[in-house]
Amino acid sequence: MLKAEKAKTQIFIMTKTVRQNGFTLLELLAVAILIALLFSLGISSYARTFQRWSIQQNARQMYLAAKAARLYAVEHQNACTLVLDQENKMFFLITEQMQNDGSAQEILVSTPSSRKVKLHDNVTFETVKIAGRYEDITGGIVFRPDGTSNDAVIQLGNGTIHYTITISAGSGRAWLVEGPAENLRTDQIDLDLMDTV
User: What's this model's pTM, rounded to 2 decimal places?
Assistant: First the structure.
């Protein structure tokens, strides 16, 4: 009898030990749900971060392209145009080069800070306002050899995140601002030129 009770006690201790070392199905399910929640939060946070980064990167590229266009026009004493191809979601620099027969041919300007840039899939031209001193321009922003350009306000974004590039006509300078362009106008006075007026 004593042996039988001792055997029952050993079996009880073994089963109790096994239960304490294992996980129940409910515990495994709770851990799986927690991992899935953390994963989904991480993915959504990554998506928002990637959207902001892609808009910021395209806006920065356009800002650098505007600076490169101004520099190219002044250095080469030849007008340079920042073309905004809204239909194909691209922007790039072109200039006219005189041929031997006297005709002008448009060529693509490619420098380390400017090349043909296609906007990311989630980025669009939300607002484009370009005005010239003598004419309204729809195709692009012209930078002239004297350092002047067209007034321009370009807003890039995805509907919730916005970056705005402004270009002053008098100085041809570009600024990059985070936020929408609704409060910016193309006919604002460039205060950098006030001391020369």
Answer: 0.69
Identify the residue whose tokens are 């991992």: 35
- pLDDT tens track for 62-107: 999 999 999 999 999 999 999 999 889 999 999 888 777 777 788 8
Q: Are 119 and 89 spatial neighbours (Cβ–Cβ below 8 Å)? A: yes
User: What value does the CA radius of gyration of the chain take, rounded to a whole number of Å?
Assistant: 31
Q: How far is 58 from 63, CA to CA, in rounded Å?
A: 9
Which bin fits 77, alpha (ψ -120 to 50), beta or left (φ > 0)? left
CB 143 within 8 A of CB 119: no
In angstroms, the CA 168 to CA 102 distance is 33
The CA-atom distances, in angstroms, between 183 and each of 45, 86, 117, 164, 180 are: 29, 22, 27, 11, 8
